[in-house]
Amino acid sequence: MKGIRIAAAAVLVMAFLVTVFAQFLAPAGYEHQFRDQPEARPSLQHPLGTDQLGRDSLARLLYGMRVSLLLAPLAAALSTLLAGLVGGLAGCFGGWTERVCTLLIDLFLAVPWLFLLITVRAALPLDISPAQSVVITFLLLGMLGWAASARVICAGARNLMRSEFVWSARAMGFSGFRLIRLHLLPNLRGALAAQFWISIPVFIIAEANLGALGLGVAEPLPSLGSLLKEIQEFVTLRSESWRLLPLFVLIAVVSAFQALLNREKVRA
Amino acid sequence: MKRFALLCIALFFSLSLAAAADGNGELRFCLRSEPKTFNPLMVNDDASETIRYLTGGVLVRVNRLTQKPQPELATDWKISLAGRRIRFKLREGIRYSDGTPFTSADVVYTMQQLMDPALHSATGDAFRSGEGSVVAQAISPTAVEITFPAPVSNLVNLFDTVAIMSAQSPQKEMAALGPFYVAEHKAGAYILLKRNPNYWKKDSAGNPLPYLAAVRLDIEQNRDIEALRYSRGEIHLINDVSPATFEKLSHENPVMVRDAGASTDTEQLWFNQSPSAPIPEYKRTWFQSTQFRRAVSEAINREDLARVVFHGHAVPSTGIVPVTNKFWFNSDLKPHPYDTASALRRLQQDGFHLDQGTLRDRGGNAVEFSIITNAGNRSRESMAAMIQEDLKKIGIKVNVVTLDFSSLLERITQSYKYEACMLGTVNGDLDPNSQMTAWLSTGEDHIWNPKQKTPATAWEAEIDKLMHAQASAVDQRKRKAAWDQVQKIAWEQEPFLYLVNKDSLVAISPLVKNAEPSAFRPQTYWNVEELSLAH
Amino acid sequence: MLRKLGFAALRLLCVMLLASFAGAVLLRIAPGFSSDEQELTPGLSAQSVQAIRDAKMADSNIPRFYARYLRSLFHGDLGVSQSLNQPVSALLRERVPVTARNLGFALLAGWILALGLALTSQLVRTRWFAFVADGLSSSFISTPAAVLALIFVLLRWPAMLAAALLIFPKVYSYARNLLHESSRMPHVFAAQSRGAGRLRTLICHVAPIALPQLVALLGVSISLGLGVLLPIEVICDTPGVGQLAWQAAQSRDLALLVNLTLIVSFVTVCATMLSDAFRSEPAGSAA
């Protein structure tokens, strides 16, 4: 398991480094259109070929990773924090606190937030930069995507509150924040970690889908999500396997997060 | 033995007759959305239009290949009173799909329904030529006369969209005079049309039409899945194929797809010139400047758009009227050239200057604007990205914003909270009268500055005059001259920057016989009664 | 008992009413409410365009619309969809069973796969199994629903299997962690030290502890399942609730949206109440 964790860390470090040094690894840039070479196959000049407008696919992948792999984990952290807060409060305190939190969670799951997102887009100026637009998008995803996990965390917290070791801790005088920090949080870590790493690809894909509302990245800035959307065309139209690379990159990064956050010691 | 042989022969013939009576198979293709209505007079969307075309009987049908009107339910017609009256002579002995007889009373009833002020449809509005009511009168069971308060341009061709409803049938709008009738409808899934047993048309050998037994229309929004189903043989037609799908299918089997030539649809970009638009005044000044618009136009590489986005299946656009609209196209006009040097010269004449690669106006403001377009249209998104790159070369920064269609529509028609917009126009009707609301300065569709109380510019006033002139003229040459002049003004002033005219790309299975795709809608099945399926 | 049922009913009613009202408000304030694609039909007169807009704005006063809607709801009238020109009740009658069937299938398949892998990971505690299972989970959670659905259509497999594969990673991940945490309870170690085998430990000591939270997860996975299924229904044009929801969103169809929100909130709250009803005994007690 240690070997897997080292490999996972290496994948994440490599992903981080390639995005930081993207302009050196892909000097063509993500926006320049080589119009004489649209949808070109891989070559020395374009190691991953070009897209429909002749833009270097390697550059778009590296810059897309920069956008998504930086912002999606931040959004996931935000949603995990909110889920932990609401779910944890509900489970720890019970009674009316739990009832109110549960009502809030149910409402969040049921309300069609799509229209709020459309309204947010309408409120933003049209000349907002692509970078600002994508930051706002991930922020919104973080703030709206916590409800499903809060429920599970609430159930977990409730269960823990009834466990013997928590009773013992309370009998020894632990209460409030100390109880939560020292006894509940460590035991909820697994669930929180699961929520975190699951949210990363969900938010990356959701950001791409929000492009239909005018949120998310705008041309010419790429994101991993927008590159994944282009795979739809691949599935039905082309048989060019290198176009699946954004999907493999995302799988590798998400697996790396999962491996790092999974503390289970596997014994033979 | 003899008796047995006779029995077999008799069985064989009866089966053959049964097969012939059952018809020649089920044609299958997809609708992109659920039809909003089965009432042929209320059609305002593509899916409903398809149903109307396949089930509706019309007095006159415009041949999609020749663009000429030909007799259908009417055998003859005569226009009088300087274009205000039309008299139709109707075919005799025709019945609706449920057996109800067709007479002139049905035409009168249809026109009364169509011209009801409470009915708001494009079909009816096309006939509203002036104040006053439209009078439809049954002269005899096979003759009907319709009188309009003012001359109606292109009067005969307008009846191509008027499906005659029965005044007496208990089935109301579901009683069909066309080649098919609606037999089954599963909302969200499919619509099954079956051959109309009472359809009046026969082929040259006297065989009853249509050849097809049925048409099945599956509701399929996803174009990728539609293409997949076509390549598997699950459907027989695609009316409008994307350029990428066209290339792929063409590589697999060239006979699977056809390029029917340049369509009448246009793709254009325009700037918001509305005085009430909530945009900075200096930007409004740019957009209202002809030199600015011409410069932007010259900086856009239309050849690249046609080649890269449409894979060569498009041509740079000249203006309002595509070259395929043979009669109405002003052949003196050519596409605007791609010339960045000329673009910069125009901008300099207008007081702009380049400052370290950034274009600035007289006041020192950096030239930057946003282009909105509808999300989900890959061609348009790609064109916007290419235009962004083109304008960068002359120091203009463009932000591309894709919006869901309802939000975009609200911005361009109500709130005017946008700077530039890129959309396309579907031109079903070739006649310039169909574009009155777009070119009259008071028009709803005068989209760059709609519903003006008085024309904002001299050239818009001139266009108003010319549009009224062509609408009231009966002589086609006079109408052409006026419309040619409108095209010239639009070419010079460029309120719309016309980008490309796309080719009409269709997919027709080799199993479909007698298909002759047209550049005009409906491209693949305009002659549906003559289509058949090979076994 | 009666008091609990009363609270549950009240909670259900509150969520349904608040969610549907909030949905209506959000739709009303979102841009595009008063716009209709039909306005752009060439040749439409100014009066016709105005008539189309007036028809859209007929329900612009949301409190009034909602009050009228609730009154007619008591008579079984769910209103008329403006975009599809059909009674909402007829539309729902056709499509809810389709989605319910698809959801049931997707959840069943997703849970079987997830639980199967999670339970097996407790029995086969090797790093390679964990690696493969986690890799599968990561792969499917990283694949867009549209791509997976298209792949299944390409392979002519039921598209609902795609939904199952999208549900399974989340369920697997939580289930795996739950089982792992439960397996570290003191009584489990005690059982193992007294010679209980892996399978017996899992069934008799680990699973009962994890069960309440797994049942809680079931409630959440119904909401997850709906969230995954609806886009797949849109992509594959399955005539279910997903297609209706997309239609309602695109056309800003108020009557359709309010009814769909009621259904979604009903399903969500019922699912979570069901899982709450299966809350366990305090943790730590031996099975």
Q: Tell me, what's the shape of chain A?
A: elongated
CATH architecture of chain C: Orthogonal Bundle
Hey, roughly how much beta strand do the residues of chain A contain?
A: under 5%
What is the count of distinct domains of chain A? 1
Specify the number of helices of chain C. Answer: 11
Please identify the structural class of chain C as seen in this structure: mainly alpha
- What is the CATH architecture term of chain A? Orthogonal Bundle
What shape does the CA trace of chain C take?
Answer: elongated
Helix content of chain C: over 70%
The domain tally of chain C reads 1
Task: Tell me the strand percentage band of chain C.
Answer: under 5%
H and E order of chain A: HHHHHHHHHHH
Distance between the termini of chain A: 11 Å
**What is the CA-atom radius of gyration of chain C, in angstroms?**
24 Å
Describe the structure.
The complex is a heterotrimer of chains A (268), B (535) and C (287). Chain A has 268 residues and is mainly alpha-helical. Chain A has helices at 2-20, 22-25, 57-93, 95-110, 114-123, 130-144, 147-161, 164-171, 176-209, 224-237, 245-261. Chain A has a single domain, classed as MetI-like fold, CATH 1.10.3720.10. The radius of gyration of chain A is 22 Å and the shape is elongated. Chain A starts with a helix and ends in a 7-residue tail after the last helix. The relative contact order of chain A is 0.15. The model of chain A has no long low-confidence stretch (mean pLDDT 85). Chain B has helices at residues 2-22, 46-55, 104-114, 122-125, 155-158, 223-231, 243-252, 281-288, 290-299, 302-309, 340-349, 378-392, 405-415, 436-439, 458-472, 476-493, and strands at 26-31, 60-62, 69-71, 74-80, 85-90, 135-140, 143-147, 180-186, 190-195, 214-219, 237-238, 257-262, 266-271, 314-316, 353-355, 358-360, 368-374, 397-403, 420-425, 496-508, 512-513, 532-533. By secondary structure, chain B is of the alpha+beta class. In chain B, helix 9 (290-299) runs antiparallel to helix 11 (340-349) and helix 15 (458-472) packs antiparallel against helix 16 (476-493). With 287 residues, chain C is mainly α. Chain C has helices spanning 2-29, 46-57, 62-73, 88-123, 127-142, 145-154, 159-182, 186-193, 198-236, 241-251, 254-277; strands spanning 80-81, 86-87. In chain C, strands 1-2 form a two-stranded antiparallel sheet. In chain C, strand 1 (80-81) and strand 2 (86-87) form a beta hairpin. The longest helix of chain C has 39 residues, at 198-236. Chain C is elongated, with a radius of gyration of 24 Å. The chains are: A mainly alpha (268), B alpha+beta (535), C mainly alpha (287). Chains in contact: A-B, A-C, B-C.
